[in-house]
From TrEMBL:
This is Uncharacterized protein. Keywords: Membrane, Transmembrane, Transmembrane helix. The chain crosses the membrane at residues 12-33, 53-72, 92-111, 132-149. It comes from the Bacteria.
Amino acid sequence: MESLRVVYRNPVIEGVLLLAVIIQIISGLSLFFKKRKSLTGFYDKLQLWTGMYMAFFLLIHVGAVLTGRFILKLDTNFYFGVAGLNTFPFNLFFIPYYGLAVLSFFGHVASIHFQKMKKNIFGLSPRKQAGIILWIGCIYLVITFYGLTNGFQGIEIPSAYHVLIGK
């Protein structure tokens, strides 16, 4: 993270990244309101709703990181990201918040894969391939939460980040 900050915190690069996020959110919301009543299939609906959640997540996530960095003057590093995830009762919000973000990403990819694939691969139909992508997302989520919570034991949060958890 430290070595890559030279690149992604460059004002030009950061501006382009923020603009890309804003465009994703606006285009996703536009598609949601345009298509929400005309979709019928499971993967069509999954793509629509996972896209809506990812727009919500990006809006909150980017806003929180910018607030932490510019207003709270915190290093928005690993501890910034896991403070709420490892502290009760905040984890009651952050577990579903992050969990749905990961599952929405994989659900969105699975939906697009299902829509674009026209043939079987390894004898698996596009529907089964999309299902495998969803299962990979579930497995990835458990592994990620395992790592972000020190094997579900919790991570000691440094005192600089106690402002995030009300200590």
